Amino acid sequence: MTCRCFLVKVTKTRIGRLENTDGETSEFGKKKPTFLRCTHLLFHNTQKMSNTHESVTNYYKPLFSHEASLKTNICTIPQSHKLSTPQLRKIQSQIHPDILADTFGCGSPIPCDSALRSCHILDLGCGSGRDVFCSAALVGNGGKAIGLDMTDLALKKAREYTKYHLEKFGLDDKVVEFQDGKIEDLSFAADDSLDVVISNCVVNLSNDKKKVFSEVYRVLKEGGEIYFSDVYADRRIPLELQGDEELWGECLSGALYWNDFISLMREVGFPDVRVVNCTRIALEGADIKDNKEVNQIGFYSITVRAFKLTDKLEAFEEDYQQEVRYLGQDSLRFDLNYTFAPGSLVKVSSNTASILKNSRYGSLFEVSDKKAHQGEFIVPQQNWDAIRQCTDSSGGSCCAPSNTEEKKKESCCGGKKSC
Fold it and tell me: What average pLDDT score do residues 182-206 get?
């Protein structure tokens, strides 16, 4: 997927703050903030947007013509985040080498499970289309895989190879579609029309991230999800770095501070964000290694998922003594805390129960009713704690500990919190 690189200098930036609904300003980072909304969160001057988009298009012409390459390792897929499930590996082995050669990204943003069949998926910043073609193979005939990008050369290449992949996967010509446009404007898609929105290292380079997530929320069906990989920081990026053209283009200076990202997602309607994978990025590149200010910041490649469930999710994990039984035939990796084995009965929070019951996973789970509230539901790994324990991109990534003793030895971490 295309990792969009912005080469225009940011001249007006306001860093976000949180405000209570009564107007009192609050600090980020409280364990349980209540009734907070995010204002001025990494909001870049939108008057520069048209020039920025033009710069991105111009930047990618030499990349897709192989006359230039990226200057750092940020927008290349870490080994630990490649398409790692057997099914995805099999699918990727059938993707044309020319498409694989022009694929950029920082993770693997494709939820691979049987419930994806016949779904409608949108890929934001699809580039030459690798993840669109992989998604098409998963949804099959009756489903839809749509790629959106604003780089003409990338779209031209994706369309040139569409017939090849349709024939390779036995799909009809209605399954794959490519749209020319910007990820901040999804007006081609109707409200409540998509099951899944994916993206690979593209959102961090948007000047208006709130608009991106708001549009995603609008087009998702009730029970649909956004499942995407991106670069995040362990602190807010200083303004002078945000104005650095190369750092922005290399997917660094546009990265959101993790807590700001969570606040922004809550504001647009996604109160429960789940981490699926994370890798701390070991920065590579001559100029980057010598930049002390950049190296003080921890950068992470993180794959997350969040579901659109209106008035069904709370801001925190709560314990209502609920259990779910997984009815699927293959193990289902859901997030850092849950890998469901066939037939397993697992205690879950009310949010997890609601997601599994009211999303495309509904037919794959038996979900018990709520009982008396027992307080906060304690999960093995809180998102930010887990992220901080992630190893670097040369040593692996965080993975989900198994839910059952007999499966721990089979997990990539052997039951540990990180590989």
Answer: 95
> What is the Cα–Cα distance from 385 to 399, expressed in whole angstroms?
13
Rounded Cα distance, 176 and 38, in Å:
37
Mean pLDDT for the stretch of residues 188-204: 96
d(CA 44, CA 210): 11
Closest CA to 169 of 197, 127, 141: 141
Amino acid at 246: E
Contact 136, 73 (CB under 8 A): no
* Interval 48-69: pLDDT, tens: 434 666 655 555 544 554 545 6
pTM over 0.90: no
**φ, ψ dihedrals at 196, nearest 5°:** -145, 140
b/e 242-254 (16+ beta carbons within 10 angstroms → b): bbbbbbbbbbbbb
CB–CB of 302/412 below 8 Å? no
Indicate the average pLDDT of the chain: 79
pLDDT band (50, 70, 90) for residue 10? very low
- Within 13 Å, how many C-alpha atoms sit on residue 119's CB side? 29
Question: Could you tell me the pLDDT band of residue 26, with boundaries at 50, 70 and 90?
Answer: very low
- Sort strands 176-180 and 144-149 into parallel, antiparallel or unpaired: parallel
Distance in angstroms (rounded) separating the CA atoms of residues 415 and 401: 5
| Cα–Cα distance measured from residue 62 to residue 48, given in angstroms and rounded to the nearest whole number | 23
Cα–Cα nearest to 335, from 390, 270, 379, 394: 379
HSE toward the beta carbon, residue 412, CA cutoff 13 A: 16
Q: In this structure, are residues 94 and 168 in contact, taking their beta carbons and an 8 Å threshold?
A: yes
> Alpha helices, DSSP H only, in 121-273?
130-139, 152-160, 162-169, 209-219, 239-242, 245-249, 258-268
Strands (DSSP E) along 352-412, which ranges? 365-367
